[in-house]
């Protein structure tokens, strides 16, 4: 601006009353994001690893993702499919463009452990998704998952993730979370910070102790969530603060969801240092 004729060489032209100044303001506001989970519920998803079904683990992970990770401002849809992969094509119009909205920038998260077997194929719907600017993230469960899911994610600007299908893998949880954390237009300050994600096996009557360091800068509104398999009546969860105070699954700040098999213990203010 300094090189403009009006301001060059230190000039600062005066504004007279006869000059009319017109100022234009533009309000820029981030639009509410639309995200849809497309989940494989076919027979192969009932396969087990150490007694844990893939479909049960998927439901647990999706429930936690929707309840704890996805920002409240997001519009969320869920579609299940088995042999009818054709649901993906009309999905853009029915979900992402619901209530007169635009599909532009909408996100699909496609999770599957098998190969497509009906038309339209992923290759056939890819041009439509690109034209409508829909981003598709794909999560491949096991090495039997269709590798074309990787091409679909790449073509639409999304990312592809892999989970081995093993009962003790945490890759599925990390993949779901990464679809939000890596979103450039996400909601900073709203999406929670994850301090620890770990899977362990506990035998009957066995006691397991773990330590989690909570920094004072992230100690507000802290939650400990335990996802389990088996019977909740045999599970006893205790979180001990650095000062020695115990918080149990039966406390006022705790909640047990027996449908998704998750125990959550929440704190408004958390003591900094190590919890166990």
From TrEMBL:
Leader peptide range in chain numbering: none
Highest taxon, organism lineage: Eukaryota
InterPro entries xrefs: CLCR, vWFA_dom_sf
PANTHER family registered for this protein in UniProt: CALCIUM-ACTIVATED CHLORIDE CHANNEL REGULATOR, CALCIUM-ACTIVATED CHLORIDE CHANNEL REGULATOR 4-LIKE PROTEIN
Name of the protein this chain belongs to: VWFA domain-containing protein
Lineage of the organism: Eukaryota, Metazoa, Spiralia, Lophotrochozoa, Annelida
């Amino acid at each position: 601006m300094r090189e403009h004729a009006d301001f060059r060489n230190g000039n600062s032209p005066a504004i007279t009353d006869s000059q009319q100044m017109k100022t234009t303001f533009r309000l820029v506001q981030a639009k509410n994001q639309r995200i849809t989970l497309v989940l494989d519920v076919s027979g192969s998803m009932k396969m087990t690893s150490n007694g844990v079904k893939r479909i049960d683990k998927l439901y647990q992970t999706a429930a936690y993702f929707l309840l704890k990770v996805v920002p409240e401002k997001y519009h969320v849809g869920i579609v299940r499919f088995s042999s009818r992969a054709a649901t993906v094509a009309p999905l853009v119009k029915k979900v992402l463009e619901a209530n007169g909205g635009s599909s532009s920038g909408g996100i699909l998260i496609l999770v599957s452990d098998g190969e497509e077997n009906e038309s339209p194929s992923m290759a056939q719907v890819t041009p439509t998704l690109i034209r409508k600017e829909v981003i598709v993230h794909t999560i491949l469960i096991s090495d039997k998952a269709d590798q074309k899911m990787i091409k679909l994610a790449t073509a639409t600007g999304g990312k592809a993730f892999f989970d081995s299908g093993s009962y003790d893998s945490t890759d599925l949880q990390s993949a779901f979370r990464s679809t939000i954390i890596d979103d450039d237009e996400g909601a900073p300050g709203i999406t929670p910070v994850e301090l620890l994600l770990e899977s362990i096996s506990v035998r009957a009557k066995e006691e397991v102790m773990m330590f989690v360091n909570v920094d004072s800068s992230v100690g507000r509104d802290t939650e400990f969530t335990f996802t389990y398999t088996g019977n909740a009546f045999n599970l006893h969860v205790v979180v001990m603060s650095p000062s020695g105070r115990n918080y149990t699954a039966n406390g006022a700040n705790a909640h047990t969801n027996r449908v998704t098999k998750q125990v959550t213990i929440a704190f408004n203010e958390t003591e900094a240092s190590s919890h166990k």
